[in-house]
Specification:
The chain is mostly beta strands. The strands form two sheets. Strands 2, 4, 5, 6, 9, 10 and 11 form a seven-stranded mixed sheet that branches.
């Protein structure tokens, strides 16, 4: 069983930055991990993923619309996942969720992930 706890959300002005963190408890060996977000009235959407290659190597993937502004990283030794968000826009306002899936492959669908955090709110003011 894996438990995920997000932190780092908050209110930021447009153009600003935030760094989200996700602390995982339980074994995440050979798990892919990712970030999703859900804006009010919209479906949950894929943001970024960090797949598993080895205990020290992983591959990063991003939603096309977010490339260049967001950066995902994971620290397997600390069992953490992070999302650095720069040049934030009001349309980035959403609840951001950390997710983990058994097997290290790159996946972008909500149903393809097995464990979820409770989410952290990010609000970007104009």
């Amino acid at each position: 069983q894996v438990q995920l706890v997000e932190s780092g959300g908050g209110l930021v002005q447009a153009g600003g930055s935030l760094r989200l963190s996700c602390a995982a408890s339980g074994r995440t060996f050979n798990y892919a991990m990712g970030w999703f977000r859900q804006a009010p009235g919209k479906e949950r959407e894929f943001v970024a993923a960090a797949t598993w290659i080895t205990t020290t190597a992983y591959q990063r993937y991003y939603a096309d619309s977010l490339k260049g502004r967001f950066a995902i990283s994971r620290d397997n030794a600390k069992n953490t996942l992070s999302l650095q968000m720069n040049s934030l826009k009001p349309e980035d306002t959403a609840v951001y969720y950390c997710a983990a899936r058994k097997g290290g492959q790159y996946k972008t669908k909500e149903y393809e992930y097995d464990y979820w955090g409770q989410g952290t709110q990010v609000t970007v003011s104009s």
